[in-house]
């Protein structure tokens, strides 16, 4: 690894110890001062960040730029490669709705999407929203949602210009683009129209960045927007959605393991919401409407991997639920869509997804599945209810994404689009595999691999090992154009499907959360050790990567097995778990307690989290090379978590490896907003991995 002439340890943050006391335990935090007291204001205006904190973050950025200075040409090359794999004037497959086809497209050189429509089946295009024009002059710009009214006359959309996920919603005339209503501030991005095409429902965020209230905005009404629902429990999220047939608006309140859904008549949005099933700890369910009945996906009755029931829409309480698809252990039902004549479900078994189609008339079923060892499969409901067409996407680590329209009646499959790689891609030159790493407790951890056919599997290849493992999120084995920049330079690219996700069913999630959270970390380490033992790589040749909760995984494995990893890339890493879970004023803390535990109320939860929280367990040992990436306005993983972690690593860790922090001072959790600007952040990460492995 080439090392530029740098100060040995990088910027040293001053220690300003603060004390806390919980459950008879005293705790000192030397870097708590990096948390700005005015963090809420910073989310709205980054310029008000206290000067001492700003100076430290900027010093870290300067140091990282100097440390990576010898890779600047490489970063430019990587950026050009990754950009060259993007079809710059790409467009989505049009989605029909009544008289129009709706779609997004990009223009050559443009960073933002254009939202468009045209008469169904062809005709003159109307650009509804020009993202490039709206983004002009903005350091950050993201359109979260675009919703057209049922009569197709109006378009509502939500915009974030800080990266803080405080959205401003606007309503425009679909034909002229003229603003119909002035901005609706502090929305959370979810927008739904009522059946009258005059009333827009949106969720409002409070000062703690929590989705607190559901409002209805009536076009032309100069008074205050009407409050539909006030969610006072800070531990719950609030959202609004629409059934496929457009009959009901679904008011959802939930945390990470409990759901409550109420029905709002889309024709009468001010009516009192009607509860489907009252909130019950660890009961999750979702709702579709079909011809006067509800189709409900639920884990009630011990159905850990979910079952499907039905109930009358006018009396949907659990006492009236009738099972139509039983629970089958190991077969996890992920999602359902109710069309007029067909019920569609997406499910996963043995780590692989499939789509199952059921005809309502007679219950006959058939499935859509594929033969590769590992692949990703997704489905889209579209806008229409009375249709026989289902849209789905397929890809694998070697196969670019393919979009199909599937006729559920005739079973005819029509390829509508194959992802284009302008710079070229030959799938035959690559290998994708699924292997299983033995975990310490006898479980086997699925690992998806991608490498070139000519890569020597003799232990000499460097390997990037990606992991997440939280909230039940499964990382798909999908096509990733960016990864080719590593694989083409001799890397093996691997995804460890560790516990905490739902890769092997719901139990895979339960056994990677709360008291069993350390399974996530030991699974990842087991995957790395297995890949080294099998000569896909070797110890000390692995670069680990993860972001957000996956960044917590990065911090934990750095503490637990530093000699296994050459480097760690931690994007917006959730590393100060104990401090955050002890601070009930932060946006996501109360809703996160079901995932991690509540250390305020429970001494056992405190001890459990304290035992693995990466920041709290930094010790005097030699750490791998580390690159941490943060976003100043991130409301999910606040900027001070990675800043504190890097400061403590510099203070406590030994050795002379690179310990780097890069904070995007103009973005939040998702990083840069433009499609090309995002590639620059990926290029930095990959240049770091290549630098460490002398593949630069």
From TrEMBL:
The keyword Nucleotide-binding does not apply. It comes from Methyloceanibacter stevinii. Belongs to the peptidase S9A family. Keywords: Hydrolase, Protease, Serine protease. Residues 1-25 are annotated as: Disordered. It comes from the Bacteria. It holds the Pfam family Peptidase_S9. GO terms for molecular function: serine-type endopeptidase activity. The lineage of its organism: Bacteria, Pseudomonadati, Pseudomonadota, Alphaproteobacteria, Hyphomicrobiales. SUPFAM superfamilies: alpha/beta-Hydrolases, Peptidase/esterase 'gauge' domain. Residues 478-692 form the Peptidase S9 prolyl oligopeptidase catalytic domain. Gene3D superfamilies: alpha/beta hydrolase, Prolyl oligopeptidase, N-terminal domain. Residues 12-418 form the Peptidase S9A N-terminal domain. This is Peptidase S9. GO terms for biological process: proteolysis. InterPro entries: AB_hydrolase_fold, Pept_S9_AS, Pept_S9A_N, Peptidase_S9_cat, Peptidase_S9A, Serine_Peptidase_S9A.
